[in-house]
Design brief:
Largest sheet: 8 strands, mixed
Distance between the termini: 33 Å
Structural class: alpha/beta
Shape: globular
Low-confidence stretches: none
CATH topology of the largest domain: Rossmann fold
Number of domains: 4
CATH superfamily of the largest domain: Response regulator
Number of helices: 19
Mean pLDDT: 95
Helix content: 25-40%
Bound molecules: FE2/S2 (inorganic) cluster
Number of strands: 14
């Protein structure tokens, strides 16, 4: 007979038509791994190990897993690690975003298919954390996030270096002819000085911070550097905590509510976080039937000052945020704007946790106060208009204020390949006032909505001293990048969005204050262009690529698959 509410090794039996046989044979095979009967009676904690030789950010995982196991064992559980796919941002073509949903499916199905009572989600590099959250939310077993932690900074000629804001800055210097190849090579040697995730407020740091704000990670866990002993102690504590969550049946569906997502959006704005988080939070919430809109992000952004002085919006790095007290200090400063009764993995509320947070030390300059913030408005703004009927986003905190109200003629590239071919052509009809437009780099057109939205400034303008221009696309942008860059235009060009209709010389108006993005071309002309529009061929005819292009949703809906 099938046991009622089975736990541990008896959970989710392999189907041989005889449940008791399934238990017997499963225990026999578990014993092949050296497990004793008394161990197989314990609650089982799955530990998702996303170590990969193609993911430099997760190279501290064997140490962290040992620490998690100690925590689980100390509370009478049985820790068992297992792999899912891993997504190393820099090692995955065409872009990790194309595989976020695959990783979410892998995570969900492996949690559900294997006998575990709870799970520790070990991720870190950009897409891994949202993928794991999406999967864990759908599987809905007790789950806690544990991230790799950020890298330490490097240095070059007395200057601190951080991936990847400084990668891009120095690349710009090299393109402008102000650095030679030998100097660039020296910088390349020093940019990523330890294991861990990018140490600026890029997507990995942002997703770690918003996960903490969602209540799905132990307080303080986002900012502890990857190589610190404190991160191992945090991992051990995560192992103990998941056992408590199992005992109390504390599942993601009990922790994650509209209020906890509002807290996460609030923290996202206060940290000047990555635009990618807009897509990821929307997708995670949608798994719970909670609809986040770009207007929600915009409202919260307008109400929330940027407090965290980290690159690319400010000047410091994640290790400095950790020393100052981490995300709990940020949340303490935001306390009156947060939903204090939102639950966390500890079983306590955000408000209860914040009573234990000390005042930030006097010497620190990393987390600003509400009274004297880094920026009075939040980091992101949502834009709407005839060029983006379903919306677009701009990272206001990393943009140039003198371009917030700008009209300029379009210089259009129909694809990334077209852009690479022509961007540095000395005859390109571009001036500092031009608006650089990239089409067909969205979820379907990219494919995978690559982080190509940080469109390069043409070399001839760089050499003339131009540091920023208005650039627009349906692509994403790395959270580590900066500039007046409009992203996530929805619907995208490849499905016939208005972006596909833009031609060289058309006047585009960006108005950040009034949240508008307009193509100033007569509707009659646009209707004619629309009637003659030829959509690009789909990138894939088989395999995962076909599943992806057939089912991925647009950016404003979170780019999840329509059947998930
Ligand atoms: Fe992994 Fe930046 S490449 S976090």
């Amino acid at each position: 007979m099938k046991p009622k509410n089975p736990t541990g090794i008896k959970k989710g039996l392999t189907n041989y038509g005889d449940p008791e046989f399934s238990i017997y044979i499963r225990k026999a095979f578990a014993k092949a791994m050296g497990y004793a009967d008394h161990e197989l009676e314990r609650p089982i904690v799955g530990i998702i190990n996303t170590f990969s030789g193609f993911n430099s950010c997760h190279h501290n995982f064997s140490d962290l897993i040992e620490a998690v196991k100690r925590g689980v064992l100390s509370q009478g559980g049985l820790p068992i690690e297992f792999p899912t796919i891993s997504l190393g941002e820099i090692f995955t073509a065409p872009t990790t975003m194309m595989f976020r949903n695959l990783m979410a499916m892998d995570t969900e199905e492996m949690i559900r298919a294997q006998p575990m009572d709870g799970v520790v989600l070990m991720g870190g590099c950009d897409k891994t954390v949202p993928a794991q959250l999406m999967g864990a939310v759908s599987a809905d077993r007790p789950a806690i996030c544990l991230v790799a932690g950020p890298m330490m900074t490097g240095d070059y000629q007395g200057e601190r270096l951080g991936a990847c804001t400084d990668c891009r800055r120095f690349w710009g210097e090299y393109r402008a002819g102000r650095l030679d190849r030998i100097q660039l090579n020296e910088i390349e040697n020093r940019l990523c000085s330890t294991t861990g995730t990018c140490m600026v407020m890029g997507t990995a740091s942002t997703m770690a911070a918003v996960t903490e704000a969602l209540g799905m990670m132990l307080p303080g866990g986002a900012a502890i550097p990857a190589v610190m002993a404190e991160r191992r102690r945090h991992a051990e504590a995560s192992g103990r905590t998941i056992m408590n969550m199992i005992q109390n049946d504390l599942r993601p569906s009990k922790i994650l509510t509209p209020q906890s997502f509002e807290n996460a959006m609030r923290v996202l704005m206060a940290i000047g976080g990555s635009t990618n988080a807009v897509i990821h939070l929307t997708a995670i919430a949608k798994r719970l039937g909670i609809q986040l809109n770009l207007t929600d992000f915009d409202r919260i952004s307008d109400e929330t000052p940027v407090l965290v002085n980290l690159k690319p919006s400010g000047r410091y790095y994640m290790q400095d945020l950790w020393k100052a007290g981490g995300i709990p200090i940020v949340m303490k400063e935001l306390e009156e704007l947060l939903h204090r009764d939102a639950l966390t993995v500890l079983g306590t509320t955000i408000g209860e946790n914040l009573t234990k947070v000390p005042q930030p030390p006097d010497w620190q300059d990393v987390v600003k106060t509400k009274e004297e913030p880094l920026l009075t408005d939040g980091g992101l703004a949502s834009l709407f208009g005839n060029l983006a009927p379903e919306g677009a986003v701009i990272k206001r905190s990393a943009a140039s204020p003198h371009l917030f109200a700008h009209r300029g003629p379009a210089v259009v590239f129909c694809s990334l390949e077209d852009m690479h071919r022509r961007i540095d052509d000395p005859d390109l009809p571009a001036t500092a006032d031009s608006v650089i437009v990239l089409q067909n780099a969205g979820p379907i057109g990219g494919p995978g909505m690559p982080e190509a939205g940080y469109l390069p400034i043409p070399k001839k303008l760089l050499r003339a001293g131009v540091k920023d221009m208005v650039r627009i696309s349906d692509a994403r942008m790395s959270g580590t990048a900066f500039g007046t860059i409009v992203l996530h235009i929805s619907p995208e060009a490849a499905i016939g969005g208005a972006l596909a209709l833009v031609q060289d010389g058309d006047i585009i108006e960006l108005d950040v204050l009034n949240k508008r993005l307009q193509l100033l071309v007569d509707e009659e002309v646009l209707a004619k262009r629309r009637a003659n529009l030829v959509l690009p061929e789909p990138h894939f005819q088989r395999g995962y690529g076909k599943l992806y292009v057939d089912h991925v949703e647009q950016a404003h809906l979170g780019c999840d698959f329509d059947f998930l």
